[in-house]
Write a structure and sequence with these properties.
- Chain A: InterPro entries: AAA+_ATPase, ABC_SmlMolc_Importer, ABC_transporter-like_ATP-bd, ABC_transporter-like_CS, Mo/tungstate-bd_C_term_dom, P-loop_NTPase, PotA-like, Transp-assoc_OB_typ2.
- Chain A: One of its GO terms (cellular component) is ATP-binding cassette (ABC) transporter complex.
- Chain A: GO terms for molecular function: ABC-type polyamine transporter activity; ATP binding; ATP hydrolysis activity.
- The complex is a heterodimer of chains A (384) and B (311).
- With 384 residues, chain A is of the alpha+beta class.
- Chain A has nine helices and 20 strands.
- Helix content of chain A is 23%, strand content 32%.
- Chain B is an all-alpha fold.
- Chain B folds into two domains: 4-77, no CATH class; 84-310, MetI-like (MetI-like fold, Orthogonal Bundle), CATH 1.10.3720.10.
- In chain B, strands 1-2 form a two-stranded antiparallel ribbon.
- Chain B is flat.
- The mean pLDDT of chain B is 88.
- The A-B interface holds A 73-75, 94-97, 100-102, 104, 106, 108-112, 121-122, 125-126, 169-170, 173 and B 209, 211-212, 214-222, 225, 229-230, 233-234, 236.
Chain lengths: 384, 311
């Protein structure tokens, strides 16, 4: 999935704040609901975000993530519930009085002002004296490597440069909380990766808490200390990136983040530390190594990630956690190959394999008969 | 290696194509140029020529610039700068120009003051409401301008609707003299030219990205600050265009001051009319007209340059 190390794992060896029992949250979102007429955009969301986090709200369009962000910025008032930032209730506080700044998806740079005037805009509104304004503007522009473009107007900049001006403009006021709406959405892939690391570096240097809204799961996985997955106005799972990927709580999360193979089935054997599931799509029994608390014969889904399935031409034991099939499609993607394998039941599975060898000759190809198998601890049972 | 002749041929073909392109462009520009020449430049030259003549009682009522005396074989070429000198000598014309500029400037200011909120409202309305509001702005153009000014005369006169309403509500006990005052002239000009203010303002406000307002407020600007620091500067092109579209025709306005204004409302358009039809002094009237054009060239050039800057 993500080629980059998780920043939380790299930066802090100690236990991160959000895993500590008695940690005090920095941003508290309490039972927030937002309705537009009959439509409920955000439905009773509660969320704690801790100091120095880089929290990602991940969801599709219409999931309510942007509305939640706009409520944090103060552009929308919640219909019910409240938001506390650093212990202060934000209800009724207009955007211009909140210790929060936002980087807009479209960047929203003022077209009639130069780069430095754009960045200075917020400082001047605070009534800061102009030598101090100039010093802080040039400091932040150097930090985002735009010092040489200070006099330019926004329309004379490239997309990546505009993005950095927008970032500098939002950071220069040293907000308690920085909101980023799809910060990398408009950049091309290569620039996006660079900027991801740049964002992480800036966040680390400045010690500002970031909340990022994105629909791009890869972006969320790379950037975030924790991810809140949103669907239909609700947060369906909040967890660290690897946890969201490896232990999704629901079908929605499993399917939204990365690719997944899902088997619907019924529980046939429920032990304390393992459970067996029979699926009509599969001859073999599915055996999962973690117990679940459920009624016998309960209908569940089993999720297996494509990279966790072994594939080979040689026969292997497929009585449990295995299958036989025919390769119906192959996609060579450079670092890895994606295979689609059709089972006897007609079910198609997706399997990815790293391209360890350069040779094409021995590689699996169309119409090959293959044996699939996976480990009990690769499966996740999903109850919803 | 390519022989020189082929290169030359290619070069030749290229230059030929380029010249063809230039010719095409010239042809496209030629039509409006001819139009301008036929209906603006040549009439202007005629007016300019008349302005250099002397008034005589004849048909046409001005002296020729060139005169051929066949008996003495003299060709006389007579130019009269007297009309222009008189423009500067007489306080009357200067006052008329200044008064016109003053009335046009004040009317433009009020048109902007009234037009901006209307344009803002239209630009921020939903798509259906926007079409209706725009139609309401444009609709009056479907009736004759003269008719609408006459309608104002009916409304404003002593036993007109405005006075009736004011009397009925008890605000006044004597009908007000509204017609034939400077106020009526301002009212007429602002009313007539308001759409010319609203439409360019609307265009520039409608183009504006509303995220910019959010961004300004997010950075600490209170609503009035975001208006003066973001909305207003971004509407600059529309404000300039709208002001000129009102100001330029208002300076030379004749019908409105003649019908709604009193005898003391001095405007250069009326002076021009009087010179032409009352005094039958065509050369003087032409000199007034030429001078008016020169006065207006300043703002016209300004709008041209500021438009370039915006682009």
């Amino acid at each position: 999935m993500s080629a980059f190390p998780n920043p939380s794992a790299v930066q802090t060896k100690s236990v991160p704040t959000w895993r500590q029992q008695d940690a005090k949250p920095f941003v508290q979102i309490e039972q927030i609901t937002k309705q537009f007429g009959q439509f409920t955009a955000v439905n009773s969301v509660s969320l704690d975000i801790y100091r120095n986090e880089l929290f990602c709200l991940l969801g599709g369009s219409g999931s309510g993530k942007s509305t939640l962000l706009r409520m944090l910025a103060g552009f929308e008032e919640p219909t019910s519930g409240r938001i506390l930032i650093d212990g202060v209730d934000m209800t009724g506080i207009p955007p211009w009085e909140r210790p929060v700044n936002m980087m807009f998806q479209s960047y929203a740079l003022f077209p009639h002002l130069s780069v430095e005037a754009n960045v200075a805009f917020g400082l001047k509104r605070e009534g800061i004296k102009s030598p101090e304004v100039n010093r802080r503007v040039s400091e932040i522009l150097d930090m985002v490597q735009l010092g040489h473009l200070a006099k330019r107007k926004p329309h004379m900049l490239s997309g990546g440069q505009r993005q950095r001006v927008a970032l500098a403009r939002a950071l220069v006021k040293r907000p308690k909380l920085l909101l980023l709406d799809e910060p990398l959405g408009a950049l091309d892939k290569k620039l996006r990766e660079e900027t991801q690391f740049e964002l992480m570096r800036l966040q680390d240097e400045l010690g500002i808490t970031f909340v990022v809204v994105t629909h791009d799961q890869e972006e969320a996985m790379t950037l975030a200390t924790r991810i809140g997955v949103m669907n239909n106005g609700e947060i369906v799972q909040t967890a660290e990136p690897h946890e969201v990927y490896e232990y999704p709580k629901s079908r929605f999360v499993a399917e939204f983040i990365g690719n997944v193979n899902l088997f619907d089935g019924v529980v046939v054997e429920d032990e304390r530390d393992s459970v067996s599931i029979q699926s009509p799509d599969l001859d073999a029994l599915l055996q999962v190594d973690h117990g679940i608390s459920c009624a016998p014969n309960q209908e569940v889904s089993v999720a297996i990630r494509p990279e966790k399935i072994y594939i080979s031409r040689e026969p292997v034991d497929i009585e449990v956690n295995g299958a036989m099939g025919i390769i119906s499609d192959v996609a060579y993607m450079g670092s890895q190959s994606v295979f689609k394998v059709r089972l006897a039941s007609g079910k198609e599975l997706r399997i990815t394999q790293p391209n360890v060898s350069r040779e094409m000759g021995s590689r699996l190809t169309w119409e090959d008969n293959v044996y699939l198998s996976w480990d009990p601890d690769s499966c996740v049972v999903l109850m919803s | 290696m390519m022989s020189e002749t082929t290169i030359d041929k290619k070069k030749h073909r290229l230059t030929w194509r380029l010249s063809e392109l230039r010719l095409g462009r010239a042809a496209v520009i030629l039509v409006p140029m001819l139009w301008l020449a036929a209906f603006f430049f040549i009439p202007f030259l005629v007016v300019f020529k008349i302005s250099l003549a002397e008034a005589v009682i004849a048909i046409p009522p001005y002296s020729p610039l060139l005169q051929w005396d066949s008996s003495s074989a003299y060709l006389t070429f007579k130019i009269n700068f007297g009309n222009y000198l008189y423009l500067f000598e007489s306080r009357f014309y200067l006052d008329a120009y200044l008064s016109s500029l003053k009335i046009a400037a004040i009317s433009t200011f009020f048109a902007l003051l009234i037009g901006f909120p209307i344009a803002y409202l239209i630009a921020r309305s939903g798509p259906t409401k926007r079409i209706i509001l725009l139609a309401l702005v444009i609709l009056p153009f479907w009736t004759s301008f003269l008719l609408r000014v006459y309608a104002w005369m009916v409304l404003l006169r002593k036993d007109g609707l405005v006075n009736d309403v004011l009397m009925a509500t008890g605000l006044i006990d004597q009908p007000l003299q509204i017609l034939q005052t400077e106020f009526a002239v301002y009212l007429g000009i602002v009313y007539t030219y308001l759409p010319f203010m609203i439409l360019p303002l609307y265009t520039s406000l409608e183009k504006m990205d509303l995220n910019l307002i959010d961004a300004a407020q997010d950075l600490g600007a209170k609503p009035y600050q975001s208006f003066f620091l973001v909305t207003l500067p971004l509407a600059k092109a529309g404000i300039i265009a709208g002001c000129l579209l009102v100001f330029i025709p208002a300076v030379g306005e004749y019908v409105i001051p003649a019908l709604l204004g009193g005898s003391d409302t001095l405007m250069i358009g009326r002076v021009l009319w009087d010179e032409f039809f009352q005094n039958r002094d065509w050369p003087m009237a032409s000199a007034v007209a030429v001078m008016m054009l020169i006065v207006l060239v300043g703002p016209i050039m300004y709008v041209r340059n500021s438009n370039k800057e915006v682009e």
